[in-house]
C-alpha cells in the first residue's frame, strides 16, 4: 500500500507519474537522473521520496520491473528469442541476464519457459522451482478439467467491445490494506457526488500479474467509474482503459473465489485461442458483498484481448 507517513499528496501524485513513466520506458532510460526529471525533484531528494512511498529503492524497483516484464514476455510470447530480449531490456549479455533472472526466480529463463504450467496442470510446492514463495502458480492445485468445469458452473462469459473507460483512482501496492484504500476512495466519491449516480461502479485495475510479482509488491489501482477524465487531485489520479475487445466473465462469488475465477478465466482465454492485449485486466463491482445474503460479490472480470 502507498503509505502516507513521510509523504504528502504532492509526493504521491509525482510518484504516480513516475510509475507510469517507468512502465512505459522499461526498455529505455529509467535512470535516477531521467526519472527525477519527470518528478521535478533533484535526484537526491527524489531517491528518498521514492523509497519512502514505494518501500524499495528506485534501482531495485526498476530492476524488478524489468525482470518481471521479461518473465511476462517469456510466458506469453514463445517465439521471442531470449538473447534479443536481454539486450532489449538493457543487459550487456545473455549470461548477465540469466544470472539476474535466476537470482530472482530461482531458475534460468530457459527453464522458466519450459516449466510454465501452460495447461495449469497440477503443481505443488515441492514440484515447482519457479519463482518466489508466493508465486500464484503454486496455488493452481486443480487440473485443467476442474478449472474449466468450475468456470462453466460459476460464470457467464462473453466477448464484447468495451468503450473507453475513465476512472478516478488511488494507487495501492500489495494485497494488505486494500479495504482501507476502497474506503478512502468511497469517501472522496461521496463528497464529490459521484456515488449518487446509478451508473457509478467501483473497480480494481491490475498493473502487475500475481503469476510473476510477489503479492506484497503487486501494483493496482482502486477506481470509481467516471463519465469523463478529470484532473488529478492529490492522490486521486485519472486512469483510462482504452476502447477495445474484452473477455468478460460475469461472476457471483465470494472474495475467496477471486483467485480461482481469475486463473480459470485466463485458462478459458488460452483454451479458446485468444491472446491478451497490452491493456490492463480489471474487475468491475456491482454490489457491496457485505450486504449480500451469502456475502457474495456480483462482479465482472475483464481481460483485454487482441
What does this structure look like?
The chain contains ten helices and eight strands. It is α+β, with helices and mostly antiparallel strands and 306 residues long. It has an eight-stranded antiparallel β-sheet with strand order 1-6-8-7-3-4-2-5. The chain is globular and about 55 Å long. Residues 1-7 and 118-142 have low confidence and may be disordered.
Provide a count of the helices: 10
Gross morphology is globular
Mean pLDDT: 84
Estimated radius of gyration: 20 Å
Query: Quaternary status of these chains?
Result: single chain
Order of helices and strands: HHHHHHHHEEHEEEEHEE
- Detail the poorly predicted runs: 1-7, 118-142
Q: Please report the total strand number as a whole number.
A: 8
What are the key terms here?
single chain; 306 residues; alpha+beta; eight-stranded antiparallel sheet; 10 helices; 39% helix; globular; disordered N terminus
Amino acid at each position: 500500500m502507498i503509505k502516507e507517513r513521510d509523504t504528502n499528496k504532492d509526493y504521491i501524485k509525482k510518484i504516480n507519474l513516475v510509475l507510469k513513466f517507468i512502465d512505459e520506458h522499461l526498455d529505455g532510460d529509467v535512470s535516477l537522473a531521467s526519472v527525477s526529471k519527470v518528478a521535478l525533484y533533484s535526484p537526491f531528494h527524489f531517491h528518498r521520496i521514492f523509497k519512502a512511498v514505494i518501500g524499495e529503492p528506485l534501482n531495485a524497483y526498476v530492476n524488478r520491473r524489468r525482470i518481471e516484464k521479461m518473465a511476462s514476455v517469456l510466458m506469453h510470447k514463445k517465439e521471442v528469442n531470449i538473447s534479443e530480449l536481454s539486450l532489449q531490456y538493457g543487459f550487456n549479455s545473455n549470461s548477465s541476464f540469466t544470472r539476474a533472472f535466476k537470482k530472482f526466480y530461482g531458475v534460468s529463463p530457459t527453464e522458466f519457459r519450459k516449466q510454465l504450467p501452460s495447461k495449469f496442470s497440477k503443481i505443488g510446492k515441492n514440484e515447482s522451482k519457479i519463482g518466489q514463495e508466493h508465486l500464484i502458480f503454486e496455488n493452481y492445485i486443480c487440473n485443467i478439467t476442474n478449472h474449466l468445469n468450475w468456470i462453466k458452473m460459476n460464470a457467464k462469459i462473453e466477448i464484447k467491445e468495451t468503450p473507453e473507460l475513465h476512472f478516478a483512482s488511488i494507487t495501492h501496492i500489495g494485497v494488505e490494506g486494500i479495504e482501507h484504500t476502497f474506503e478512502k476512495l468511497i469517501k472522496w466519491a461521496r463528497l464529490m457526488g459521484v456515488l449518487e449516480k446509478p451508473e457509478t461502479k467501483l473497480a480494481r485495475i491490475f498493473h502487475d500479474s500475481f503469476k510473476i510479482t510477489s503479492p506484497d509488491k503487486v501494483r493496482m489501482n482502486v477506481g470509481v467509474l467516471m463519465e469523463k477524465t478529470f484532473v488529478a487531485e492529490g492522490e486521486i489520479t485519472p486512469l483510462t482503459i482504452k476502447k477495445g475487445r474484452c473477455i468478460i466473465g460475469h461472476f457471483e462469488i465470494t472474495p475467496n473465489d477471486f483467485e480461482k475465477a481469475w486463473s480459470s478465466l485466463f485458462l478459458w482465454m488460452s483454451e479458446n485461442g485468444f491472446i491478451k492485449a497490452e491493456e490492463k485486466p480489471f474487475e468491475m463491482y456491482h454490489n457491496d458483498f457485505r450486504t449480500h445474503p451469502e456475502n457474495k460479490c456480483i462482479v465482472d472480470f475483464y481481460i483485454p484481448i487482441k
